[in-house]
């Protein structure tokens, strides 16, 4: 089975949104977008990037399990919402950021499972 050379198009679209938000519009005036947009984009970008790198390194398709996704949410939650705020006053912990991580991970995983299921059910010629 041949692996893809690049991550899917939506990966680059989300990455572009995150970069534009972070670099060009640091404070847009919209409180929800300023506070939670990057948190919503974080898990899908990291998981898809890791999936792509693993496929390149292993030279075979790779599929994350629910355990992997929950571990990523736990990691980001602990590091960015608990550890960093305790180490530096510049950071602050927010339960809504954790909810954003979890929501985006659940959506990414559901789409990821659906795409893999469709890919496997298409008969090969």
Count of β-strands: 0
- The low-confidence runs, each spanning 5 or more residues with pLDDT under 50, are none
- Amount of helix: over 70%
> How many structurally independent domains?
1
What is the element string, with H for helices and E for strands?
HHHH
Largest sheet: none
Rg (CA only)? 16 Å
Strand content: under 5%
In whole angstroms, how far apart are the ends? 13 Å
* Sheet/helix structural class: mainly alpha
Q: Please tell me the overall pLDDT.
A: 81
Written account of the structure:
By secondary structure, this protein is an all-alpha fold. The protein has one domain. It contains 4 helices and no strands. Helix 3 runs antiparallel to helix 4. It is globular and about 45 Å long. The chain starts with 8 loop residues before the first helix and ends with a helix.
Topology:
Blueprint: H1 9-23, H2 31-58, H3 66-87, H4 95-121
Helix pairs in contact: 1-2, 2-4, 3-4
Which properties best describe this structure?
125 residues, mainly alpha, 74% helix, globular
Summed up, what is this model?
This protein is mostly helical and 125 residues long. 74% of the residues lie in helices and 0% in strands.
């Amino acid at each position: 089975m041949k692996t893809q050379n690049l991550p899917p198009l939506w990966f680059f679209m989300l990455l572009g949104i995150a970069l534009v938000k972070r670099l060009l519009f640091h404070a847009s005036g919209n409180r929800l977008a300023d506070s939670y947009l990057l948190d919503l984009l974080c898990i899908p970008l990291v998981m898809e990037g890791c999936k792509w790198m693993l496929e390149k390194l292993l030279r075979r398709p790779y599929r994350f399990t629910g355990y992997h996704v929950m571990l990523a949410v736990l990691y980001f939650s602990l590091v960015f919402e608990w550890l960093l705020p305790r180490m530096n006053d510049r950071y602050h912990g927010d339960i809504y950021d954790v909810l954003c991580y979890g929501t985006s991970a659940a959506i990414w995983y559901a789409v990821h499972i659906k795409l893999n299921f469709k890919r496997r059910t298409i008969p090969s010629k």
